[in-house]
Amino acid sequence: MGTARGFHLILTGIAVSSMSLVLASCATSIGQGPQTRLEIIIRDNGAEISQQYSLECAGEQAADSSTLPDASKACLQLELEPSVITRKVDPHEICTEIYGGPQRAEVSGALHGDPVNASFSRHNGCAIDRWDTASFLLGSENL
């Protein structure tokens, strides 16, 4: 009978240890910090870097380390409209051939923990519309 009781105590100890590990991992994932980390590079003339920003968000909240002007607005906007930087550009989309300027931008990093790599330009009507939609990230709301 002593062997069965000892075995039961060992199983109870394993169960308690396992539960502690599960709870600790949950607490760690909640407090890990920013889920969104983006690097934003703007090239006003299309070639040379004219501005470079970082944006870190935990949900709608911007981290103090963010350098993007109005980072709080950008974090909120990304929560409401993540497709701004995740939507794939349709190569067959019919666009007006209006040139909006040489500006180019790249946004890379992670959005909600998922990899992101988006490019923006103003080479035609569709690209201008996409740029304007992402202007809260590109720091170019007055173009």
Describe this structure in words.
It is globular, with a radius of gyration of 23 Å. The chain has a 5-stranded antiparallel β-sheet, with helices on one face. β1 (36-43) and β2 (51-58) form a beta hairpin. Helix content is 39%, strand content 24%. It has 2 domains: 1-32; 33-138, Subtilisin Inhibitor. It is an alpha+beta fold and 143 residues long.
Characteristics:
single chain; 143 residues; 5-stranded antiparallel β-sheet; Subtilisin Inhibitor
Brief overview:
The protein has 143 residues and is α+β, with helices and mostly antiparallel strands. Helix content is 39%, strand content 24%.
**CATH fold-level label of the largest domain:** Subtilisin Inhibitor
What separation lies between the terminal Cα atoms? 82 Å
Largest sheet: 5 strands, antiparallel
Tally of contiguous helical segments? 5
CATH architecture label name of the largest domain: 2-Layer Sandwich
Portion of residues within helices:
25-40%
Mean pLDDT: 82
Based on secondary structure, the structural category is alpha+beta
Question: What general outline do the C-alpha atoms trace?
Answer: globular
Strand content: 15-25%
Tell me the name of the CATH homologous superfamily of the largest domain.
Subtilisin inhibitor-like
Q: List how many beta strands DSSP finds.
A: 5
Adjacency order of strands in the biggest sheet: 3-2-1-4-5
In total, the number of domains comes to: 2
Unreliable runs: 15-31
| Secondary-structure element pattern, one letter each | HEEEHHEEHH
Rounded to the nearest angstrom, the radius of gyration is 23 Å
CATH class of the largest domain: Alpha Beta
